[in-house]
């Protein structure tokens, strides 16, 4: 292991200064489940690692007009929280699907939202791909079974977070602290495509950190669910997933958010599917049209055309589950 400076931060306001500089020079240690992998594989060689586990303001789940979740709150806490399970089931289900019990007990919600891609070319030391400053995306002509069917190019990663699609379906925002103070960013604006920002996956600047996630109170008649497909029910990342949140009153859909995971470089919201639902009764015909619309603009690669059918079926099944509530 190479040498680096290790600091434990105890004050939230100190973080922007401690993180000044290049994105990979100064890094945060929270749960560490992604950071330790990247350190061991020599994907990054930071000069400073800043432990933030002692900052009390970043911890805990607070009820009020909606929900505020500290960035250091563990995935296990979210999956088990009674109010989240009752009022925000899509988030509890997504959190409960993440990795293994051991990793859920270590991993944090802030880390889950900002983890780096799991593409084997990005993670492999022998490949200097576009995202690492190289000249090509190896997935274009290489093994691309698990890569993007939406929003790809010039890099074709898929976003690895399960919590992100669920939170976007709930209309959540993140509070971010930087050198100029705090601000809120809707999660729909937080993630960026490779064509917008090739070397990063979010709008975070190097000296910014997520402090909490803010979820508005659910509207009357809100129903939500999360479905995830992974190979052989392994405790792994999603090949495809769907987070659905509907507001249903008197049998008709008043509002809809459908967000896909595992199929695009960012959590992929599908307005065309939402449009097929809004103002209509939640029945078999409407659901079938919404599921078809969700994948109408898919652009599969050579080996991942199966994701189109899989994703359509997941959307249909998720909506059918909500129809039964």
How would you describe what is shown here?
The protein is an alpha+beta fold and 325 residues long. Among the domains are: 117 residues, Uridine Diphospho-n-acetylenolpyruvylglucosamine Reductase, domain 3 (2-Layer Sandwich), CATH 3.30.465; 102 residues, Enolase-like, domain 1. 29% of the residues lie in helices and 22% in strands. It contains 13 helices and 12 strands. The strands form 3 sheets. The chain has a 5-stranded antiparallel sheet. It has a 4-stranded antiparallel sheet with strand order 9-10-11-12, sandwiched between helices. It has a 3-stranded parallel sheet with strand order 1-3-2, with no helix packed on it. Helix 11 packs antiparallel against helix 12 and helix 12 runs antiparallel to helix 13. The model has no long low-confidence stretch (mean pLDDT 96).
